[in-house]
Amino acid sequence: MREQYNDDSLVEPFLDSREFHVGILGNGNPEILPPVEYDYSVFTDLHDRLYTYQWKYDGDSRGYKEIKLLCPLPAGDGLLVEKLKATALAAYKAFQLSDYGRIDLRMLGDEPQILDINPNPDIDYTSALMTSARACGLTYNQVVTRIVELASARMPG
Question: What's the pTM value of the predicted model, to 2 decimals?
Answer without folding.
Answer: 0.92
